[in-house]
Amino acid sequence: MRIFLTGATGYLGTALSRRLAADGHELRALVRATSDTRELEALGVATFVGDVTDRYSMREAMSGCDWVVHMAAELAPTAPLERMRSINVQGSENVASLAFKLGVGALLSVSSMAYFGGSPPDGRPATEETPPQEPFPTAYSLTKHEGELAIRVWAEKGLRVVTVYPSLIYGPPGKKQGANWLLRALLKERFPVLVGADQRTSWIYLDDVVDAMVRAMERLGRGVEPGRDFLLAGDAASVRELARKVASLGGVEAPRLSVPVGLARVATRLSEPLLRLVGKRPPLPSEQLANLARHWCFDDARARAELDWTPRTLDDGLPPTVEYIQGG
To answer: What share of the chain is helix, strand, coil (3-state, %, to 5)?
Structure first.
């Protein structure tokens, strides 16, 4: 198949490109002028300079494709809301509307569990049918939700869309990419305390996300109908449980103290003026605290059943990840 990718130079995008290239597909990737494209080019991926905010810049590469895989997103918590909306919302609208106009076979929309704004406050795992937890805690969560709604407009017009919502993605390669940065910080004992220690979050191994994405594409029209969406949750653990698992594997001390999110908010609010005077940011910005105040625990039974997919547990995925992060 001929496949057009956005976000191909990112953590997930590079892993998917490796898999699709190994499977023999013809790949075309949208890249920025400043992107490091060496790995994509080594895989034989054709690169086209452009941006999802510029609809015309995608036209040449997307023309004649069987699939579009849309992964591009603004993730930086410090990015202004206007920038997040231009990429995560208007960019998604541009990708979907152009795919529809060009008659592309199908679109795989790679969203995030952030779309849901969290999971229920009682700790129950959320499913694809669980209403979003509003108000959305962060600009990223809000704009990922809005971006998916923009894509659905074109699905209603006839664009064949399948959507996946990965949880926190971890696993080699990339010591500072994806959620590996958090595992690395725990291994380097950079957290003196845990904030929101009892909040539960789902974690998914990188290769398992890629495998589910490929299965969703292969099964469209053969058991998976257009419009279907899949949570890719993996395994769940509280912040405290995760810290202890990582510390045990890495031979380091887990943080012994925990602080309620409310107290951390007060401390952050009081320290921000002083930190600004010395040119520093709070160790936990307000958006991260908003995330830590919620559970992010999800159920991916639909993907397991309909994609015949079995993601690994944290007990399976953490050991090679910790070894990779600590090595070299």
So the answer is: 45, 20, 35
324 class by beta-carbon count within 10 Å (0-12 exposed, 13-18 middle, 19+ buried): middle
Alpha-carbon dihedral sign for residues 4, 7, 11, 14: positive
Gyration radius of the chain's alpha carbons:
20
Residues forming beta bridges with residue 23, ordered by sequence position: none
Query: How far lies 129's CA from each of 174, 298, 300, 310, in Å?
Result: 33, 11, 11, 21
The number of residues in the chain equals: 328
Contact 269, 275 (CB under 8 A): no
Element (H, E) at 224: none
Helix (H) or strand (E) holding 155: helix 139-156
Phi, psi (degrees; rounded to nearest 5) at 32: -80, 160
Assessment of whether the complete model's pTM goes beyond 0.90:
yes
**Angstrom distance (rounded) from CA 216 to CA 309:** 10
Q: What is the pLDDT of residues 90-138, one digit of tens each?
A: 999 999 999 999 999 999 999 999 999 999 999 999 999 999 999 999 9
